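Contributing new records

If you add data, match the layout below exactly. Sequence lines come first and carry their own label; structure lines follow with theirs. Keep one chain per record. Anything else will be rejected by the validation script.
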Amino acid sequence: MSSNAYVEAQMLIRKPVEDVFEAFINPELTTHFWFTKSTGKLEEGKTIIWEWEMYGVKSEVKVLQIIPNQLIRTEWGEPSTNVDYEFKTMEKGTLVIIKSYGFSQTGEDLLKVINDNTGGFTTVLDGCKAYLEHGINLRLIEDKFPSK
């Protein structure tokens, strides 16, 4: 039984929706602000592997649905949760909303996972904004948990 708790993070990125959407489905772009390696582009019905090489972590990402320039619905993580990426055209750019839900944890564990997800997705959005608007890779994910 999954809880009805959910996490939401959002950010306005001052670029056209096509560019922002592409940054989330095309690993050649996404690797500049999130994971370091991917087995391919996000496509509906496919399962892709994302890798964070500096942490020795991999995750299977099931792509449930893609509506071009509007929505990417995925399921991933251990235990798996739903993560949706919504894209909305705004006057000054594109609003990206990341929603994560379907958590199996409860109590303190649920609070921890919500906290981690909120922080994680906020960092991803910050990194995406810096990369798409200014061409800078801030290395946020890499530097969030430095080993030495």
